[in-house]
TrEMBL record:
Gene3D superfamilies: P-loop containing nucleotide triphosphate hydrolases. It comes from Exiguobacterium marinum. The lineage of its organism: Bacteria, Bacillati, Bacillota, Bacilli, Bacillales. Residues 19-197 form the Phosphoribulokinase/uridine kinase domain. It comes from the Bacteria. Signal peptide: none annotated. This is Phosphoribulokinase.
Length: 213
């Protein structure tokens, strides 16, 4: 990951307002990358986008119908679907950050609000919601993903230990969650400047910002 971090840091323009977008599915390594960047870049704003995801109780009542290989699936909306995000609110806050307007992030029970300080020239905006935004507002954009097996392994460790989720429920929901990811979110990765495959705890940079120049 050091090579990736080095490249991102090298592309930051000193003294200029800089917005860095980090996205990908759950357990792809987004938060780890954001924290490592914050350590390297120093005193920066960090905006997590989980509060912009529609409440899970509402998503459970929203059943999607989709097909794969001729088989019709019916399952609750997961955060891998664009409609599961308050994108207009996030777009507003990204625009405010770009224009140097200070504000508090959304205050939710699982994440304390933070102050987005316009005096800090660098802001990292990290989370699944970022995948569905217009990325033209960002100076750098990075997308991380894994294969399904690695995602399940990481999510089972995190969600069971940290969130108290039952393994049987996690296993039964993973297949549909992954299918929704492949259908509704994975195609958006091509819009990012940098694409990183973190499967099996390896870092494979599949596309870099240099390739677009």
């Amino acid at each position: 990951m050091e090579r990736l971090i080095d490249e991102i840091v090298q592309n930051v323009q000193t003294g200029q307002r800089t917005l860095i977008a980090i996205s990908g599915h759950g357990a792809a390594g987004k938060s780890t990358l954001a924290e490592r960047l914050r350590e390297r870049l120093g005193d920066v704003n960090l905006l997590h986008t989980d509060p912009y995801i529609i409440d899970s109780q509402l998503r459970k009542q929203t059943i999607l119908t989709y097909e794969q290989n001729g088989i019709t699936h019916h399952y609750k909306m997961t955060a891998c679907h664009p409609a599961a995000h308050h994108l207009l609110s996030l777009e507003r806050d990204v625009r405010m950050t770009r224009e140097g307007i200070d504000f508090y992030t959304i205050d939710v029970p699982y994440l304390e609000r933070t102050w987005i300080d316009p005096e800090k020239p660098i802001t990292i905006i990290e989370g699944m919601s970022v995948a569905f935004l217009d990325l033209s507002s960002f100076d750098q954009s990075i997308y991380l993903y894994t294969d399904g097996e690695t995602e399940f392994k990481r999510r089972s460790q995190r969600d069971i230990q940290e969130r108290g989720m039952e393994l049987d429920y996690l296993r039964s929901s993973h297949a549909e969650r992954r299918l929704q990811y492949e259908l509704f979110m994975h195609p958006y990765r091509h819009r990012f400047q940098t694409i990183v495959n973190t499967s099996k705890d390896e870092i494979q940079i599949e596309k870099t910002a240099h390739e677009e120049r």
